[in-house]
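S.,

As promised, the flavin-adenine dinucleotide run. Input:
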Amino acid sequence: MSMRVELDEPKCVASGQCVMAAPEVFDQREEDGVAIVLDDGPAPELHDGVREAAAICPAAAIHLVER
Amino acid sequence: MKRIVVVGASAAGLAAAETLRREGYEGAVTLVGDEPQAPYDRPPLSKQVLSGTWPTERVFLRPRPALDSLGLDLRLGTAATGLDLGSREVLLADGGRTGYEGLIVATGVRPRRLPGEGAHVLRTLDDAVALRDRLLPGRRLVVVGAGFLGAEAAAVARSLGAEVTLLEPAPVPLAHAVGEKVGRVLSEAHRDHGVDLRTGVTVVRADGNGVRLADGEVIEADDVLVAVGSVPNTDWLTGSGLTVDDGLLCDEFSAAAPDVYGAGDVARWHNPLFGVPMRVEHRTNAAEQGMAAARNLLKPLARKPFAPVPYFWSDQYGMKVQAHGCLRGHDDVAVVEGDLAGRRFLAAYRTGDHLAGVLAVGMPPKTVRAWRQAVATRTTWSDALGSTASVSRA
Ligand SMILES: Cc1cc2nc3c(=O)[nH]c(=O)nc-3n(C[C@H](O)[C@H](O)[C@H](O)COP(=O)(O)OP(=O)(O)OC[C@H]3O[C@@H](n4cnc5c(N)ncnc54)[C@H](O)[C@@H]3O)c2cc1C
Ligand code: SF4
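Predicted complex:
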């Protein structure tokens, strides 16, 4: 199972919830807190955390393409 | 469990439905929502939708294919009108009934209104579009209530060139929520941007063409927005046997009765992290609690208490306000990073002996996350403040 992480950046509200759910995959820009995707093709062991991040993102800004 | 019904098809209800599937539940999921639209997001309504920077299609929570892939029995435009706990059935406005083995209540809140006719409220996509279409340069808008919602609408209306009068009964807007000094900093931004902010005024009637104050004064306007708080949507639960007391009463697992859970703005649950019952109208909580309710419903023997650090943000005049924890009812406030005058600061809130919450404006994300962590671990006030060099009482 492969996963691609897409961020709809203009939607991001800089909440940091994704960083708390999956710190290996997300970070926040220092100047405005907008999310950064560190790894857009995360390894399988990180998938649960990334799914949690996408579900919890209060801006619905994280899209996952899984196949 | 073979049949789960989720009532309320917005942030909390959708999060619950998605979590059921993500946890591997393959039974039937009926998602009942009284709004006709597919689930959409509310925070952009008072921001990008009101300002016209986003087309309305941007607010939908999931692209249609993602929604379809959940395999839901989706009943949009259908209100739940009653609940029969005994027979485990939800009664629907179309006269039908839908049986459940598990139920999640996520019906949110609706705006509180004032006497009068024709004033706007701002809760739904239709509300936002109706107000947006009226906000033209030179139009006079009266906003009743300078809470976060009223403040955001006032800011957007100014940016569109409308003349804005903002009326607030309290002496300092938001003082009960964020403290007086922080409330003052946030409300000074209104005056800087040319909003006529009038505090200590009580509106007794709001109509489409103006408002009447308690002292008899009438303020005329082209449009009036009433933003004076909200009422939980629990009418349909009346007589069901569930306890309703400013929201659906839930325990620390978010359960209201066996196999019945509440989530989102409608739920008043016992948050064991803070040891108090709370009902929070925040977007992140809706998702988190929807997820928690779904998991606890599916795994009755491995339930986890729902013990989040509440979080909300608000955008006003280019300021991003972010708050973690419970600020309401605090005993003390201290500015622990930055300074109020520069509108870049982090304020810490004490309740009892503990750091109960923080509110930040324009601070780096790492700093904010570190303070949030201190709230999550129930740091004592003296330990929390001991870590900062300079502290000024706010
Ligand atoms: C304009 C606006 C701006 C906001 N901005 C922010 C912000 O910046 N930051 C933040 O943290 N939060 C913000 N919020 C709050 C956030 O949007 C809410 O916390 C969130 O929408 C709660 O989701 P919910 O699913 O619990 O409830 P709701 O979103 O209220 O959804 C409940 C759904 O259930 C439906 N329903 C009600 N009764 C019935 C019934 N009997 N039968 C069937 N369906 C029913 C309702 O019509 C609605 O569709 C904002 C809210 C608004 C309105
Ligand atoms: S959770 Fe969503 S809104 Fe928050 S920082 Fe991450 S992408 Fe942005």
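The CA atoms of residues 17 and 57 of chain A lie 6 Å apart. Residues 3-66 of chain A form a domain with the Alpha-Beta Plaits fold (CATH 3.30.70.20).

- D.
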